What we know:
- The longest helix is centred in the first third of the chain and has 9 residues, at about 5-10.
- This protein has helices at about 5-10, 35-40; strands spanning about 25, 30, 45-50, 55, 60, 65-70, 75-80, 90-100, 100-105, 115-125, 130-135, 135-140, 150, 155-160, 170-185, 185-190, 195-205, 210, 220-225, 230-235, 235-240, 250, 265, 270-275, 280-285, 295, 300, 305-309.
- Strand 1 (about 25) and strand 2 form a beta hairpin.
- The chain is elongated.
- The strands form 2 sheets. It has an 18-stranded mixed beta sheet that branches. It has a 10-stranded parallel beta sheet with strand order 4-7-9-11-14-16-18-21-24-27, with no helix packed on it.
- By secondary structure, the chain is mostly beta strands.
Amino acid sequence: MRPLALLLALAAPAAAEPQPAPFVIAETGQGFATIDDAVTAVRDGTATILIAPGVYRQCTVQTGGRITYKAVEPGKAIFEREACEGKAGFVLRGRGSAIDGVVFRNYSVSDGNGAGVRIEMGDLTVTNSMFLDSQEGILGGGHETVRRITIDRSTFSGLGQCDETVDCSHSIYLAVDGDVTITRSRFERGTGGHYVKLRARRVNITDSSFDDSAGRKTNYMIDLCEGGTGLIARNVFVQGRAKENHSGLIVIAAESRTYPSNGLRVEENTATLAPGAPTNPAFVADLSGSAIALRDNRLGPGIRAFERR
Length: 309
């Protein structure tokens, strides 16, 4: 190569390296520019979609298949604001869904139910994920195919509302004629409604924390509004001062007695009042008339153990 040609070659800009696609189907290696394109490609199959770190103003509707949405780096795959069908960041009505390490934030829609995740069909497992500063965190159920919802090691912060619409929204609001399991999760800084509202036959809410000390206009920590049995154990509750309804922390069958509550166990929990919180709430308020088993709960000053309503 002549010297001048060599100098020109050295001075030429290198070709840009192709950027990896942010959404990759693990089983095939196919990459996609949007989450919805990746979901569409799965069709009715079973797949894991790997999500690269980034902030995505995108949403998706899963209409079939069994899909796991997995952040490559937990906590760094962030979806915000964009709600499909005026509902949620992820609208799920496939055969089943799992979400691992994903963050959902800043969802608001006109009907007051803007959620990170809307589960409409199939079972759901959520692990190591965050739901932040939205009208709702996880909402849905009610379909016969939704039989089991499991939430583990996840955070719900800055969620709920009762001012924007006639009906309140909540951090979690699920209708499941089956099982709801919530373990090792954190609820804090609610902005209205209940932290956990369930219409479920069986519940398992354990080893979680409910910190209402910075909440405002909140209601119950756990509302089993149609009854239900199971276990509520080893949780930590802090009742805040700026509540809309401070009369009970755990309330059973406030709306109806659809599900039997006999044998519901509430045990080994800790509950205290934040400074300035109204005194005399019931730790458990029961409207079911069932035999509720309370055992070894540690209650701070100003909290009554039980009230039959």
